[in-house]
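As a warm-up, study this chain.
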Amino acid sequence: MNNGLSKKRKVMNYLMSGRPISGSQARHLYDVQNIRATMSDIKEQVERYGNWRIVTSQNSNGTTQYQMKRVVLADPAQFA
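Now compare it with the structure written out below.
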């Protein structure tokens, strides 16, 4: 069943829900075979404007996970 969304868009939607994703999860959920390449594409897209970041971490099993974090920019006026 194809709902018209690319694998990259499905992973982005998953990340935007606030949940981290690992390579095995991406493979199982969305048939993403190369999570590093997919995350590189997503990172380039979401970090372009400076309001989102892709963060990598390791879970307790040592598996790399990816998360999307919102960047909150400081108001320069509050430091004046």
